[in-house]
Design goal:
By secondary structure, this protein is mostly helical. It is built from 5 helices and no strands.
Length: about 120
């Protein structure tokens, strides 16, 4: 019994093209996100001000409970965890959200916190 390897080549080629298309798509998304962030050009003080505004608007107390929930684990306070979360979230924003960041971020934070409180 012989196996015809030639019959498998078109499939292999198709899979290689799909992987290549996926890689290009991910690469294009990364480039778009980088360009968006450059257009927004947020500074460290911008992230801090947004985080403070969110902390005030959502009445988040001092402490470090959010470090585990929304931070990376190396923050020392809720404010620092919020700042980290803002930086990470801004990198994933679509263009239409760039204009009105604070309301979107407040909504997303509330959703995130509700998921954790429901668990």
């Amino acid at each position: 019994m012989s196996i015809n390897h030639a019959s498998h080549r078109p499939q292999d080629s198709k899979n290689a093209c799909e992987v290549s298309e996926l890689f290009i798509t991910q690469q294009q998304v990364q480039i778009k996100n980088k360009k968006r962030m450059q257009m927004l050009n947020p500074t460290a003080s911008t992230y801090r001000r947004l985080a403070k505004s969110m902390q005030y608007a959502m009445q988040i107390p001092e402490g470090d409970a959010l470090v585990f929930l929304i931070g990376k684990g190396n923050e020392h306070s809720n404010l620092e965890a919020l700042e980290t979360w803002v930086k990470e979230t801004l990198c994933t924003l679509d263009e239409e959200y760039g204009v009105a960041m604070l309301p979107f971020l407040l909504d997303r934070l509330e959703q995130t916190m509700n998921q954790w409180s429901a668990a």
